[in-house]
Amino acid sequence: MRKKHLRNIAIICFSAVLCTAALFDRASAEDVFFYDSSSEAAAEIREAMKNRESEVTVGVIKDVDRESLKKLIGGLLSEAVKHTGVPDEGDYINFQYSRYDGSAKTERVKGKTGVVLRYKLAYYDSAAQEKEVDAKVREVIRSLELDDKSDYEKLVAIHSWICDNVEYDSDDGSDLRRTAYDAIVNGKAVCQGYSNALYRLLLEAGVDNRIIFGEGMESNGVTMAHTWNIVDLYGKYYYVDATWDDSTGSLDYFLQPAGEFTDSHIPGDEYGAGFFTEQYPVSDKEFTFDVGKPNAAVISCARKMAAALS
User: What is the pTM of this model?
Assistant: First the structure.
């Protein structure tokens, strides 16, 4: 049964990632493995975050001064949560950890400069809860029978499942509301949880997408922090806001092009910058299928297009 919510409630969500950096010069690094590249060090941080580890220490061989040392602390973490296309990495991690404290020091390692970085990390969910998500995701994907279906059909099925099975949580003040766990396992979440759930399930089905953070604007001009997704269909990205679709009981925010959609959905600076929009171009034209009525003819057309473009 579809859950209805007031739209002014449905756009409430929160996102905070805080950093404090402490620099120091002396300490032993005997137990730290030093990577030759920042990307290798970031990969270890990524694995620790996937496992919801609260502390991780990595080493990297790198010539730094004090200013670049500060940048390296945040830079490695940004590299660790970059979009990889792996369902439980990228935005899935980025929007499910709440804060970090980072510290760094330098030490001579075999005649080279070694940097030891230590992170203390906090998350909205736990490793045990992520295991529940993994099991539930497998169950949902099996139940939707997505094998041999087009990307369009997969999106329709997953979006429908979320709108039919997740309720906007305007009462519970816990941070779990922001997670895929609360959305997929408990059936309730705020927009961040909706977006995380859509991101995870679509990537599990092989459909690329990203989470966008910004502001949602009401018709009266009031804005609130909000998240939604962009989804890749046949080389172009389209906006999808499962939270507002669920709250309005419509498909008004499903597969929308750039233009009118961004009157009410204002991307944050990071997502409106050229480097992001060039990599993830949102179509300026409406999607060609009748997304409001995904009937047999539409599905057949989707399959033909997918085959032609593969």
Answer: 0.85
